[in-house]
Specification:
Layout (H helix, E strand, L loop, with lengths): L9 H5 L8 H6 L5 H10 L4 E6 L9 E6 L7 E7 L9 H14 L4 E3 L5 E4 L5 H10 L15 E2 L13 H11 L1 H5 L9 E4 L8 H4 L2 E8 L3 E2 L1 H9 L4 H7 L5 E4 L2 E4 L9 H5 L3 E2 L3 E8 L15 E8 L6 H17 L6 H8 L1 H7 L20
Helix pairs in contact: 4-5
Amino acid sequence: MSGTVPEGLPMCRSLLGGRYPSPVRELLRSRYPIGMYETGLVDNATAWGHGGYVLFSELPAGVAHRSSRRPELAEESILVRILAPVGGWVSADLLDRLADAADRYGHGLMRVTTGGTIEIYVPRENVLPLVEALNACGLDVGSTGDGLRGVTACCGPARCDAALVDATGIATYLGERFIDEQQYPGFPHKCKTAVAGCPNDCIRAMTQKDHSFVGVYRGLPQIDSDRLWAWVSRGGDLQALMRACPGGAIVVEGSRARIDGARCIHCMVCINRCPAFRPGKERGVAWVVGGKYGFRGPGGAMVGQVLCPFIPVEGEDYTRIGDIFGRFLDVWCDRGLTKERIGDFILRFGARNILREMGLDPEGGHRDGAPAGGHHA
């Protein structure tokens, strides 16, 4: 590994001149073909070509491939995708072991994707030895092809006081229950899934993921009147808070404040801005389906739509969430078209028809995730 930019790479050299951390400096410390990066900078387009997935008899999923437009610089790019711990929680010891594996078997380079998985770039002949080393660290691979991608989550209550549910706990449960779907692709298309701890949705689950469960509360926000007026006395702007409410649901009557239930949309704005407002006590998740960034397909980019506004979460029992998830995947496999993303499937097949196929009542019986004709215990 060299820390010096070779001659003939002026764009890369220029990126070493500032004080801000440089991607070139990191690439030079690895065995990445730095000329490929220079080509991308000059052409304003990646030097890598089309992508695909590499199948080994031992690995039905977890290895991806990019061809090269400059084979004289690099013949191909192979990466191994790791099913990382949810919430982004990785110990320093595990990071050290991953770095050692990337140095020993790969190009000395790894990255965390926007989807929350970890990728290590590796020569084709070192894929299986790398996977063995990852297994020794307690990790596995998957999340490629037309299957369930690694289930991701926000940091949840371990770090965020806005979390309404244990997002990492739910995501871990779903990942373990549907591990085969992550490692043996068999869906019409890929399925990206995430759990957000509250409607703030810091991980963009509702817009980026095909399938998401978002922490919500039932009932109206609770207001501590004494705390509210103490906040106002310290300079809190109550009028600005009222204007910020999208539904105009905050009503002040003399020395009291209340929430107009007909206008409240449970958006978290008042809770985020004023410590006197707290969520309702009954917690659960909203089931949101069909989000995607990509513009392919008849629907283009989509924001997910709510198919079930409230599924109760009781303690650490996430069975009802998993049951709903599994039933939907079954319907999608039976009714979806090849290479049809979930949002496009809903657009074509219809949300009400999907609920009926799942045994949920589209007229309202689906609102707690219970099947038509009765409720789960």
